[in-house]
Amino acid sequence: MNGYGTARRPATAVRRLMAVLTASAALVAGCTTGTSEETPPTPRGLKQYYDQKPSWRGCGNGLECATVKVPLDYGRPQGEQIGLAIVRLPARDRSERIGSLVTNPGGPGGSGVEFIRQAGGLFGRDVRDRFDVVGFDPRGVGESDPVSCLDGPQLDRFFGTDSSPDNSHELAALRTESQALADGCKTRSGPILPHVGTVDAARDMDVIRAALGDAKLNYMGFSYGTYLGAVYAEQFPRNIRTFVLDGAVDPRLSSTETLIEQAKGFETALRAFAADCAAAPNCPLGSDPGQALNKIAELQRRTDSAPLKSVRGDSRPINETWVTTGIAAALYNKGFWPTLRQALAQAIQKDQGDLLLALADQMLQRRPDGTYSNQMEANMAVNCVDKPNPPDAAAYQKEVDKAEKVAPHFGSYVAWGGLPCVYWPVQTKKAPHAISAKGSAPILVIGTTRDPATPYRWAQSLASQLDSGTLLTLDGDGHTAYLGGPPCITKATDHYLLTGTPPKKGTVCR
């Protein structure tokens, strides 16, 4: 695992997973109301991009799709171009339309196009009435010149490699697979790798804003999408109308600090799950939360040398790494906790790992035919170029040791996930830093107290860094808060998007 994650999935994803295991609207531009802001000046040399008008076409279920052109290298805007796939769900009340609400589901590497296809209808009623909800695949992702590194069997081997090495042989194997991923990305996607970072993606968002015809940007970013939003706010603070950053990332942290803090977040979520399970009848982990955590640790240790069986005939050894990935996947959304209890019961009582493996496959976006989406490859490509990385595996080992001390169930697994960045063909020397976005309109930051992937303290930190930041808290579980969250979060967020007025500082929802 490397990086942050994506917005919590709709509850239907749980039912879809269990089912797998047991067996054109008119194209109108519309008029924009309530947006009398003066159009920002066009950055020098980019007029052809800012002046483009997307050719929208119907693409099913009331959606409209188009492509927006951007320069591969903003330092050479007259050079090679790439296309960004975008999709919009038009506002239902065209007469009261405010503008576009651009979104990013996280990752990095999450497809914004697929996000709107699956979850566009889940935005608040008033938001759906008055905004075109827009998604896009960032550069290097999905349909936007995607990064490609390895084929399906090679990715199986990479994701299944022991990520908590106990000896020199296992560590050598982990280094070899990490190097292979970096080399594969260089071979298959070398020219785009220097240009897939968040700074360039944020510049793309401003081109998209202009192409959509909006003088100011309305944006909702989840997980990594909060970092993308913060970087945009740093570059274009006066181009913001409303910004929602849900499941916030702390931009001040180094690459390894981020992974260590994320491992601690998963530990917090696992403790919450263990307590919930122990309080329920027939918990496969026992009736004591401490005992439950010990049983999970014992399962991890046992599968390090004796993988679980697959009754479905999957050829992959369901080892400690796949088991831990499956557990982590279920912690992203409390709606998956019953599934996780069932998966752990199968593993502990029957020595079967199919359900844990299915959870892992869903998070990694592995398809039934053994191929993968490019989400995880893009995730690595973005994370590796966004921040400096340790110079070698020996230096990286010291960071892993720190993670193991503070997160015994997840420290090694999460921290070693960034090892390919040590071998990455493109490196940056730009150090992480606080982002203030001085001069921006109010920005709403949302944090969940027991978020596994983006710990609550990150939301507290980002809200305090931003000159105009306001923190909205969900006292609860799961990754991100708005989609599928309580009405308190939805109402406060929607009111802000409609009016520009954030909720009162210190607001806590439950």
Brief descriptors of the model:
alpha/beta, about 500 residues, ten-stranded mixed sheet, two-stranded antiparallel sheet, about 15% strand, single chain
Please describe what this structure looks like.
Helix content is 43%, strand content 13%. With 510 residues, the protein is α/β, with parallel strands linked by helices. Strand 2 (57-58) and strand 3 (64-71) form a beta hairpin. The longest helix is centred in the middle third of the chain and has 24 residues, at 255-278. The relative contact order is 0.15. Residues 9-36 have low confidence and may be disordered.
What is the count of β-strands? Answer: 12
Shape descriptor reads: globular
Roughly what is the average pLDDT, rounded to an integer? 93
SSE topology string? EHHEEEEEHHEHHHEHEHHHHHHHHEHEHE
What percentage of residues falls in helices of 4 or more residues? 40-55%
Poorly predicted runs are 9-36
Class computed from helices, strands and strand pairing: alpha/beta
Report the C-alpha radius of gyration, rounded. Answer: 22 Å
Largest sheet: 10 strands, mixed
Number of helices: 18
What multimeric state do the chains show? Answer: single chain
Going across the major beta sheet, what is the strand order?
Answer: 2-3-4-7-5-8-9-10-11-12
The separation of the N and C termini measures: 29 Å
The portion of residues forming beta strands comes to 5-15%
